[in-house]
Predict the structure.
Amino acid sequence: MRDDRAAVLGQIRIALQTAHLPAARATLPLRVGTGQGDTVSLTERFRAEVEPLGGMTYVARSDEQAIEIALKVLASAQGKELLAWADDEIPVRGLGAALAAHAYTRLDLAMPEDADARRNKLLELERAAAGVTGAQAGLADTGSLALVSAATRPRLASLLPATHLAFLKTSMLFPDMASFFRAHPDVTRDASNVVFVTGPSRTADIELTLQRGVHGPKFLHVVLCDWL
Amino acid sequence: MTLKSDAPRRAQLFATCLIETLRPEAGMAVVRVLEKLGVTVEFPDAQTCCGQPAFNGGAWQDARAMAKYTLDVLSKSKAPIVVPSGSCADMLVHHYPELLASDPQYGPLAQEISARTYEFSQFLVDVLGVTKISASDVSRLTHDVLRLTYHPSCHLLRGLNITQAPRELLAGVEGVNMVEMPSATECCGFGGLFAIKMADISSAMLARKLDAIESAQVETVVGCDVSCLLHIAGGLHRRGVNITTKHLAEILDPAPNIQITEEMYLP
Amino acid sequence: MSLHSPNVTFHERVEGALRDEILHTALDRATGRFQNLRVTALASLPDAERVRDRARLIRAHTLAHLDTYLEQFAAKVEQAGGQVHFARDANALNEIVLEIARQHKVQSVVKGKSMISEETELNHALQAENLRVVETDLGEYIIQLAGETPSHIIVPAVHKTKEQIGALLHEKISIPYTADPAQMTAAARATLRREFLNADMGISGVNFGVAETGTICLVENEGNGRLTTTAPRVHVALMGIERIVPTLDDLSVMLQVLARSATGQKITVYTNLLTGARRNGEGDGPNELHIVLLDNGRSRVLGTEVAEILYCIRCGACLNACPVYREIGGHAYGSVYPGPVGAVLTPALGGVAQWSDLPQASSLCGACREVCPVRIDIPRMLLVERDEAVRAGKMAWWLRLGLRVYSVTATHPALFRLATTTAGWGTRALGAFGKGWLKRLPPPLNGWTQSRDFPAFAKKSFRAQYRESRHAELIHLDDNAFRE
């Protein structure tokens, strides 16, 4: 396949001999990501940021409370089929069993390589009423969830269904994105997809009128697991 | 009124070509205000135009010729330079050094002149240390109360970053009622040759500015740039609206109503 | 709409735009709202001005070492299992994307928002090969159904009313007519969901490429970006060669100002970081990731006085702040890049000779520079391009001559006084009927008197008045001396 790499890089090197780049410096200033905060204040901030965007938050003090909240949230979604992360990836003990006991089933998310099989698979997954995930981190200053992909943490669970239910350990709250990167410098090396989710999907493309749930989930529920 | 202890006692006035030809009364007001404040005004007689029309038009070769000429005129005296126009001051302060950056003779001179060039309100507040022009400093306005609105011209505001000086000076004048117009910091649409070459767009921008001024229900629009004021005045006149335009100096002027006629002075 | 000069002149497009009431209302509402939201959002950022300084520094530093960072970026992407392609120009990019499509027997393509694809007119190239191409950003989708081009970087369909959109959806995707944005959005979701699930290839833009990790960052609010980069088998990401940042830290700085400047959000709903293709064992995501880096004149611009325009992070804040953009909207610029940034970038990439009107479409008010998150000095570069246009012979002869005469006059004080005196007589004679105002100026100056009167020159110039006042002072002093 065509590739102009050498030509383009060569042209850039010639250009750099005459480039007029105001404010350019040989080195950049010190690193960022020194924000601080205790769990209580970070939790408050996270909730204060995401609620106005339409994200619902709940604080659970035990596994039982978390499960109770989850069942209430899922009851509001239409249907019993779920797209979910593996049990180990969700920090609530007994959630899997409780969901099964309430007749919820999980769709298998493994995507086949073959084009037609893949298409059929996606159509099947489209039926799911809700997605259930954990979260690798929360960013307090923006009210964002960090979702890091892995075999046991499929991307579509937080994307296809109209309802997304996420469980976040409050001990995993960071003041901001830079402090998250500082704590997990290799996060992008280990996962093909890291997404920061901040509230439900939205658009204002028609006469600047805010609409939720245009392509991604319309409802975002975050259960903050406070005992972890 | 006490001025800064190190306030200069002399200043060169670069009057600008528009004051020279279209609004001499604004220039005379500048002279009177400066003199009232104890500053001796020098007027280098050979001055003409700073060259901004050519610079903004893209005729940089012509602009350079005018810049060099003006630098020669202004460098004959060591006194700070006062320019009663944000736009022309911005030209001297920022664009002369850029325009002549690679000129071994005029490049350094442009830097030197840039460092001692001030827009009128900036000179009063930052250099002289004027904080309030009160009744003891200026003779009274003929009005009981003058309702005015201030138009911060673009190059003054965003070129020279002069935001407060004109407002402080106006606020200090007794009998002035300052009314803020909507979206005051928006461009009036003048832009030099832009008003002619892009007349449609410029006219639409002016219409917004005139609407804003009219909505403030004032007697006078005050600014620090005769160029924008003439543009606005032309628009107001076309609309048949009776609102005057005044340079800041004309509001601060100790003798605003004295008409200078030859008869008054000839022996 | 690409960087090809359109058939209609700039002035004709401007005239059309100024007459369009719907456009005006929409532009007023959008630009006004975004300006307010931007101010509020930046106020929520501690130390916002320093963050902007830092963001500017990052952009400048990156471009000063662009070759190194691009090589590092490409190497890291490849390490992570992605494929990198460099395209010298628009045709090369389209050719590369088509080749990938052929290799994978692609029949249908879903697209996230990508300015690069607009620049290269990729949709035309794909459709010419009988591929089905669907834009998935709601605004872009509406624009595509209407057969139009975006009028705003952030809100592509800002020039259309909800009634127009309702009629369009009714006609094109056969839903019952409604002007309710909620119902229209739901209908578009359902229609586009089928497109996502059927598509073989997803094409997206890129906001930033991170050199240290080979990560591409894609920000969006709708989720169409996520679906475009997750559901189809192949993901092709298009980016300009200048859109690199060195580290994840630097990325976090850029993200602090991007959404705030664009839509007034602290962060967009989805901030996607994509590194290489689907890893072994990952259940979903594309099988292949291709990143196509477009030059198309950028490396040449890098070597010029207007290289600073490459700092741009495409937030659109300068459009919302620009009083010219607010009057004429995006289409009038005739380029995929409208507004102040487009007025500099379009001639820089496409040639000043072809686009000589755009740098003139500014009053140089500086509002763009004031709001730019990376403090790009757009007015400075408009002036540089005006100079270039004049040197390329693109200035009207009368103006060129006028400025030359003016310059000669202004460097000879006696001549200057003579000229101003003569002009004074002239204007006063012409203005005598209008009590000192001229209602009409002759061509080519008649643009002025289209909407404003022109004042006659003062009877007595400042110079004359000043001299007299000095004269009077002397007499006054003499008087006093006499009295003593």
Summary: Helices of chain A lie at 5-16, 39-50, 63-76, 95-101, 115-125, 177-183, 187-190. Residues 38-225 of chain A form a domain with the Rossmann fold fold (CATH 3.40.50.10420).
